[in-house]
Protein 1
Amino acid sequence: MKYLIVGGVAGGATAAARIRRIDEFAEIVLLEKGKHISYANCGLPYYIGGVVKNRNMLFMQTPVSFGKRFNIDVRIENTVIGIDPVSKTATVSRSDGSEYIETYDKLLLSPGASPVKPPLKGIDSEGIFTLRDVSDTDRIKSWLQTHEVQNAVVVGGGFIGLEMAENLHQAGAKVAIVEMANQVMAPIDFSMASHVHLHLLQKGVMLYLEQTVERFERSNGKINVFLKSGTVITTDIVILSIGVRPETSLAKAAGIKIGETGGIWVNEYLETSSKDVYAVGDAVEFSHPVTGKPYLNFLANPANRQGRLVADNMFFGNTEKYEGAIGTAIAKVFDLTVATTGLPAKRLKQFDISYQSSHTHSASHAGYYPGSMPLSVKLTFDPVTGKLYGAQIVGYDGVDKRIDQISMLIKSGGSVFDLMKLEHAYAPPFSSAKDPIAIAGYVAGNIVTGRMPVVHWRDIQSVNSEEITILDVRTRQETSGGQIIKNSINVPIDELRERTGEIPKNKPVYVYCGVGLRGYLASQILIQRGFAQVKNLSGGYKTYAIASMPITTDFLNH
Ligand code: FAD
């Protein structure tokens, strides 16, 4: 059996190695258009920033070592320029321009994704880069080493854009991020992205949100970035991190079906519409396990998982179904860790799926043990059954283990009530007896069962205090740091039982405290004393204050 694999990094190299492990005698040809295979694309920003010092550490295998270990015919700088599923052949172009035809019994496409580069005036100027592979990395690194880079602009505030912002800062540049949306990190909700905004501003990163680049112009050794708003940012380097598109040109030209999101369509065995042609990784769309809708997911874990699974399906016949992925992702943004899994509220809204959400703020581990740090959790779930749809966590420590536990629950169809049942390893340096995700589960459970009606930060922004009483149950000292509405009534929780007479009973009461816990206690006190429409502000003042914070770069001019 002869296997032809297009693309030699995450999906392609994984599949090639797995095929070899299950078939010692197969002929395997791995075709890669670049110079490297099986390298750590996720580590590239950290090499640019100097965190990873040794370039060689990025390469898990060289083409020669991989070829030898797995007895694979690895051909770098060989670009597949056409495939013909009828004659089962691929046309390949070598770096010298010569071409040849290669035959196959089974073909795997793992060509990845290509960076979006809009046709803006000046976009091809010197000093403007995209980051996708080792060659891009070398170009950026060399630019940083040969130029005095005092200022950097990152266009696009996605995961990779933010990693680059941090690494350019690490390399000594003053960084500005230009982002078209009103928030960075599109896969998370605005209220959670606000933590990231605050952290970036604190680190001295300039944030240009809801701003679009109109054109670039090089003059006097600098790059001027012209925004549609009229603002001009002068910089020494620009990283374009606007997003990626699935690489589908080969599949399209071969008449292979492209799905509605623009990725290569594959069935549950990862076989394309053309028999014996399979596809994996960034290039494919698959069915989202929660929505059932076609989904593109540009992440390394699914590419590796699919690569292994598809090898089995190519060898054994279609035996293993791909379970799909729900977009579990994590990023380090300076000192902060930001992670997401499943569906944020904005996607649920888009899909018209009815949902409820909760915000909780806990400590990463027991508060009395040194080094405890804040950890904020947002859950999204079915308002009736509590079935988990998604989670987002922002914090400094222990974010990764929590998001992974929730991701497992979502993939197995779990609910917020299952979060309470998670048995976590506990000792003071690692967690609390009630872990932050158990707390999140308890809070969400109270919302689902109706024990704690909630109001969200957005709803409370437009509240008319004539019609609704806003009750602040924090201490007087805490209120000096800011209140939601200036004329909200402040009755500290410990005085509430004696002072309920001060709260009008003829209109709804929205209660808030610091993070939501005292608000919950207060709402129970009021409900059980006959107040009819009491709601607690989810996430308390902390969620409200961070999400309502004006994003301004004005302070940088002073
Ligand atoms: P790739 O790994 O991109 O491999 C595709 C290969 O196919 C490329 O080498 C390309 O040259 C080759 N190719 C394309 N067309 C042809 C052709 N016609 N002929 C021959 N060869 C061809 N994901 C995470 O989950 N976490 C992270 O922290 C993370 N960080 C990242 C940081 C960066 C800078 C980048 C670029 C990506 C990052 N990713 C991360 C995404 C992750 O790397 C990808 O999701 C994953 O590599 C996709 O695997 P793939 O096999 O589909 O494509």
Protein 2
Amino acid sequence: MNKSYKITILPGDGIGKEVTQEGQKVLQKIAQLYKHEFQFAKAIIGHTAIEQTGNPLPEETLKQLKKSDAILFGAVGHPKYDNDPNAKVRPEQGLLKMRKELGLYANLRPIKLFDELLGASSIKPEVLKGSDILFFRELTGDVYFGERGRRDEGATAFDTMIYSRYEVERIARKAFVAAQGRRKKLMSVDKANVLESSRLWRETVQEIAKEFPEVEVEHTFVDSAAMLLIKNPRHFDVVLTGNLFGDILTDEASQIAGSMGMLASASVGDTVGLYEPIHGSAHDITGKGIANPLASILSAALLLDISFNLKKESQSVIQAVERTLQAGFRTVDIADSKTSQAMILNTEAMGNKVLEYLAIIN
Ligand code: NAD
């Protein structure tokens, strides 16, 4: 028997619950096939936790997360809060607090296009083919955590965009190391022509770049980066950016992959890693059993790779997803007019197909 690992499953809300179940099944299959011992625990967060305890991130959950070697997370959110901007307790507070408490300052989002899904994107296949981007989005600074408030009796509101040098340094180093292992190109995205926090960002990245002379660095304004992503996605290798710009650019880039349902992400710092699809709780399809579980399954692959350094196991999950797509199986979000009804699977059936291919590959 190999080493034993503790994994906490944190389904959250909405389709988070549905897709995480499939991600966990894949991890269980990997444990069985490769003779690893994965010990699973479950915890609550978000709306589900508010309903049960009044707190979007209960102490018990936080304790459990801190004891884990890795976390597979779904999503948080509920329509009740989306339509009530004045709600004092909100599901996403649980998410922001969790990132802060676990020191998860770097969000990695690989945008890799499976050839089989070239037609599922709204961007032309010839522009897309071969795109392979790795985003590093800073996660614990920026306007999300700066001072905010209202004045003039509520008629004026402000949020503060704030970064400290050390926050930029630590994520920049991680991004440069990743670029070294890829095509050795790094684009740092900011708005240094206007924002002081961006000027600090750029200065700091320029300093860190000196430690990595073999990596070619490009500094690009966020507006221009947003345009270039659609115009020529193959231009990008590693992209390093702040919390707000990263939030927006990675959703834009998700369209390169065809669907939000295909993209995984990892949030890492210096301790436990958190792995999650980039999509939210998708109220519009919750409970219908049609959510695409592949982003959660690919998040499980990232978990195996980054937190446990199980490269072979991680690759076999990615290959199993690839084989499933090559065989023509689709969930409804990635189906096109050529997909026959018989090949459109629900969430659970898609998860099971990936398990079948995992067993065949091994
Ligand atoms: P969303 O990502 O939940 O959904 C956007 C669109 O993509 C929807 O039409 C949805 O049906 C579709 N989609 C998303 N994931 C899919 C999947 N796996 N398979 C098939 N289709 C999928 O974003 P939203 O609608 O803007 O937000 C819904 C809720 O999720 C909100 O409450 C929001 O606050 C929350 N949210 C949470 C997170 C998170 O927990 N990390 C991230 C984003 C949004």
Protein 3
Amino acid sequence: MADAIASVKGMNDILPPDSAAWQRLEAAARGVFTAYGYGEIRTPIVEHTELFARGIGESTDVVGKEMYTFEDRAQRSLTLRPEMTAGCARAYLEHGLPGREPVTRWWYGGPMFRYERMQVGRYRQFWQLGAECFGVAEPTLDAEQIAMLHALFSQLGIAGLTACINNVGSGDDRVRYREALVTYFTPHAASLCGDCRRRLAQNPLRILDCKVDGCRAIAADAPQPVAYLSDGTRAHFDGLQAALGEMGIPYRLEPRLVRGLDYYTGTVFEIVSASSALGAQTTVVGGGRYDGLVEQLGGPPTPAFGFAFGVERALLAMGADGAALTAKPALYLATRGAAARQRATALAQALRGRGLVVEVEHREVGMRAQFKRAEKLGSTWVLALGDDELAKGEAMVRHMATRAEQPVSIASAAASGPLAELLATPR
Ligand code: AMP
């Protein structure tokens, strides 16, 4: 036998029954996002590398260390998307949305790619579901998106989640805060890692999310952005808290939260889970305001707010059981002989057309084995159809739970007897 080929490290296959839990989560998200006025956007998985370098920031870990970047055959530098906000902002401009509508609300779902160190809940290909709203500067929009997530996670029964909010400032606040960080970190420069020494000159805010222990210890006492907010930004932050309070959405102020992507301005938030299934990766959702990104990508000044959550992490937090959600066949057609199999295949086709979940046994295996398999699949009924039954025009139907059996006419199987009852039952 040839050597088997494994999947790429950090990239997972999702098989049934686990995929049923994914589908449930995706369907719930689609329903909730739609109710809040968000329409789905699908963008390419691959973008020009420059989009992420300009949008997310060269000195972030995501751009500096984690991107899957390659040249195509025409020597263009392309990158597998590490997140979707930059792609959404690109599409927003490319399709002329700023001139077409005052407010744009999009949601998305799909795989993202980051070359990160792997742990429970941290992968190199992972799925995000997220939303972006362009065109609204007011804090009630920030609160509405956090409330939308609260509604979704409540519907999914994810308990123990807390929204942590902060404000990293914008414009002049950021300039003052940056100066305060430089003043604080400069005397510690010799003890910082090489990356952070570079960040001190280029982008000191990024020192706050360095994962090196020594840098984290120094950053623990660094100045916090809320102390540098202007009156306008402070009023926005107060407005967000008042709106969350009025809706009864639980939240916590987290003055150290800065998020690891450069485009954030003003509000930032994360939703963290208390579930031990997540190991060290307790952040399920990350998001915030990015009022400068569209302009930075060549568009008009456009306020914007968005978030993304990790599907794998949300499922871990839910303790999702795909097996419990997998559809069981209402009817299993056990067959013996080629002619019976052909008839059973046609009968199943007709029954599925009327909404039943039906599975046909196409292999020539013993009847006992077929009944065992029907039991394992959790089928409600089994109809055993052999060439003998076909000749008689009558087959036997067994109710698997009670083992009660009754004959049915093959020609009118769907019109009378248990299959007719099954078809008449609301599903
Ligand atoms: P970010 O795009 O970094 O703001 O991340 C948003 C959310 O995506 C996080 O809160 C996680 O739930 C999820 N996420 C980010 N990176 C990974 C990863 N490597 N593996 C799994 N989930 C991730």
